[in-house]
Design a protein that fits this description.
Aspartate Aminotransferase, domain 2, binds pyridoxal-5'-phosphate
Length: 365
């Protein structure tokens, strides 16, 4: 049944690479899941077989991220983009203001959406200089009466990442972790709510993971439509209506793979090694390649860089494409090049990219 195949060096920003082992497991189980004679896609979401998949995915995420007891893991749809609206709908009451730390295009979108629903303010911004850095903790300006403080932990488009997180005390910190969740260990208890579209580091598109602290659920605005209320998902274990069952199944397979790799600490070590291959090549290139992010804000997930001019960038991207590399063009809003090296991107693909960058420079430098 297995045809011979060739896997691409996949540097897509999202949807992105999935572990080969997870894809093969899905292939193996596609026609007959667990002796049911059905695909996971064909199971009732109320069946025991599906429920086991659902609960295993939740349990694994809790285990891998060491999520404390007083948090729930929820599965939603609508992507991270719907969270931009759901967060203020639930947590920004009249008379309060929510602070946003601006670190890139996704923060801007989150802010713009919240602005439609309530009062917002910029707690700090790195826009000056085109989002090359992450504001220092001392720069964050917000009162202890703020509804919440919103941050974007990894800036997918500009290639910057928070290196450590502030302590916001009684002000709940809410984070968009779409592009770096599960890439490194961090202290979940610093956050009130975390959200992430799955299609970068957790699995395929179609499901959004939310990690929410119980006391926030109690404080949420009750007059929100049912499907836009976190409480609806928390109350019914994300089974109020039909969840995206196959996407959640793929998340489960991806989490099992992370566990097999040795968990988040082991993945983090490998992510550091992968990113170092490319950043060291940039730094040793004598300015042939120029990184966008300030070194102290560099992302382990999205490496952004430019060449001397657009012509040379086009030549580099064409050469890469011919050699089997996918997804290296920068986001259309910034240009240049970007290598997205999420958890599932193999070390070998990063080493191959390094080799390509070195030989391209030799031929064109
Ligand atoms: C990709 C991305 C989004 C948008 O996600 P959708 O699931 O497409 O809505 C939001 N925030 C960040 C940080 C992202 O990387």
């Amino acid at each position: 049944m297995t045809k011979s195949f060739k896997r691409a060096h996949n540097f897509n920003a999202g949807p992105a690479a999935l572990p080969l082992a997870a894809l093969q497991k899905a292939q193996e189980e596609l026609l007959d899941f667990n002796g049911t004679g059905m695909s996971v896609m064909e199971l009732s979401h109320r069946s025991k077989d599906y429920e086991a998949v659902h609960n295993r995915a939740i349990g694994l995420l809790k285990e891998l991220l060491a999520i404390p007891e007083n948090y729930d893991v929820l599965f939603l749809q609508g992507g991270a983009s719907l969270q931009f609206a759901m967060v203020p709908l639930n947590f920004l009451p009249a008379g309060k203001k929510a602070g946003y730390v601006m670190t890139g295009s996704w923060s801007e979108k989150a802010y713009a959406e919240a602005e439609k629903l309530g009062e917002v303010f910029v707690a700090a911004s790195a826009k000056e200089g085109n989002y090359r850095r992450i504001p220092a903790t001392e720069e964050l300006k917000y009162g202890s009466d703020a509804a919440y403080l919103h941050i974007t932990s990894n800036n997918t488009i500009f290639g910057t990442q928070w290196q450590d997180f502030p302590d916001t005390g009684d002000v709940p910190m809410i984070a968009d972790m779409s592009s770096d969740i599960l890439s490194r260990p961090f202290d979940v208890s610093k956050f009130g709510l975390i959200y992430a579209g799955a299609q970068k580091n957790l699995g395929p598109a179609g499901v959004t993971v939310v990690i929410i602290r119980h006391d926030l659920l109690d404080q949420a605005n009750k007059k929100v439509p049912t499907m836009l209320k976190y409480g609806t998902y928390a109350k019914d274990n994300s089974l109020y209506n039909t969840p995206p069952t196959f996407s959640i199944y793929m998340v489960k397979l991806m989490l099992e793979w992370v566990k097999e790799q040795g968990g988040v600490a082991a993945i983090y070590k490998r992510n550091q090694e992968k990113a170092a291959l490319i950043y060291e090549t940039i730094d040793a290139s004598n300015g042939f390649y120029v990184g966008h992010a300030q070194p102290d804000a560099r992302s382990l997930m999205n490496v952004t860089f430019r060449l001397a001019n657009e012509e040379l960038e086009k030549k580099f991207l064409d050469t890469a494409k011919k050699s089997g590399f996918v997804g290296l063009n920068g986001h259309r809003s910034v240009g240049g090049c970007r290598a997205s090296i999420y958890n599932a991107v193999p070390y070998e693909s990063c080493a191959a990219l390094r080799d390509l960058m070195v030989s391209f420079r030799k031929e064109n430098g």
